[in-house]
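Each record in this resource describes a single protein on a pair of labelled lines. The shape at a given residue is found from the number at the same position. The record below illustrates this layout:

***
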Amino acid sequence: MRYQLYYWSGIQGRGEFVRLALEDGGADYVDVAREKGDSAIMPFLQGEHPGQLPFAPPFLKVGRRLIAQVAAILDFLGPELKLVPASAAARQYALQLQLTIADLVTEVHDTHHPIASGLYYKDQATEAKRRAEDFRRNRLPKFLGYFEDVLVRSNGQHALAAHSYVDLSLFQIISGLDYAFPHAMEKIQRTIPHLRALAERVAERPRIEAYLASPRRIAFNEDGIFRHYAELDSTR
């Protein structure tokens, strides 16, 4: 089965959570925007394509089926790529954790766009500083502390009983936060040993290691979710 991933090209954002699962699962997939350009996405967003209507990328096309929203895509791919334990309870818990990751991703985005996504960062920089300060001091420790507890309550190695797409997503979270908030992450380092070890193990998985070294991996940049602005990562 061949999967078609639709996502804006050149942006390191939500689609990367899906791409990591496809890569780690050894899936046969095509990154449509990279091959055909971003214009290939527009017929779906404008309702010109029959079938399900997505709100925004990323979305996955499998035959005639179209699945949008990262958590829904990974819930579908998990059993397909053997990236979630087989039981219904495990699959539900994985989805719950992925939705919590989605909440964190939204808060990361809102540190640099706290007023409106349609405005440039420079047009809301003052508000972004206030939002980022609260994120560093309160929200970041809360979220990462929660996921650290998840690992401890499991087996210390994985979010679930075995490797899953949730582990891959946590790797992406840690990688993105290291890029966007290096000083804040250095401060919190000692409190998240299991998360840090998990991220290192995921990076060493053969398919992920090969992917990270390939041109398919888009570098973090200031067009995606995780953006580094020094003024938002105060050393105070």
The chain has a mean pLDDT of 94. The first helix runs from residue 15 to 24. Residues 3 and 107 are 29 Å apart (CA to CA). The chain has ten helices and four strands.
